[in-house]
Predict the structure.
Amino acid sequence: MASSTSEQRNPIIPVEFTKGVNGLDKVIVREVRGSSAEVYLYGAHVTSWKNDYGEEMLFVSSKAIFKPPKAIRGGIPICFPQFASHGSLEQHGFARNRLWSVDPDPPPFPINSSSKAYVDLILKPSEEDLKIWPYSFEFRLRITLGPGGDLMLTSRIRNTNTDGKPFSFTFAYHTYFSVSDISEVRVEGLETLDYLDNLQNKERFTEQGDAITFESEVDKIYLSTPTKIAIMDHERKRTFVIRKDGLPDAVVWNPWDKKAKAMADFGDDEYKHMLCVEAAAVEKPVTLKPGEEWRGRQELSAVPSSYCSGQLDPGKVLTGS
């Protein structure tokens, strides 16, 4: 009874508009059971996702620079219309360092969710953007917290060119997960798949072994990946599950010590406490004709890990619902 009384005194505000670091506009989304997410309008950038107990699930560097035009280091940067250097634009495209707007008139989302904890954002190209990427588009993003604290990002990108021109793009949700110790982490669901190794000139290899573990720098694009991938944090007894639609690839990245030291906005030892596993469409660019729309969705959840003979048992996670 105590909790319901306190809820009556302090009702949960599902969506709150406020200011973040350096006065940047920020939206806080809260689910009634206690989970929350924070989103900066700069980059439509999710910088925090906490579970019902207030534990942070995402990594943001202590040295992150919250100052345009620099992208925020950590959280969930959105890579569009170009992933990495796969094209002629700046690294990872420009969506992550543009100011987005709250979408005043979002289209109906056919997602069966009773959650009030969501925000709709929109990005349209400026005159300057059209000079570097001469295509008209509308990029709508819905960020939702589900009743179980799951975090859902749904992107809808539409070609609004009036001159009949199609366009192609690559895309990624560049999610930085917070982990206790990278050497105690396993990724399941990518075994035996082909990947492009960015550390070896994008050469194609096939993954060997029954799980991906980490003992040095990793930068790989896994191809034709399943809709579900699991990240086991052995020490924290936590498993992250990524479910994705419309995003056939999965990028796995950890800079390790040398690259960490070379990044001004990344702590020297922070590589030990983060792992990027990114739902992406990279190998085969998405092409849209005028009027066509693409949709790419990722849902993140965190569940307690189960154990089997001293090792994390992903079976339940990957084969379960």
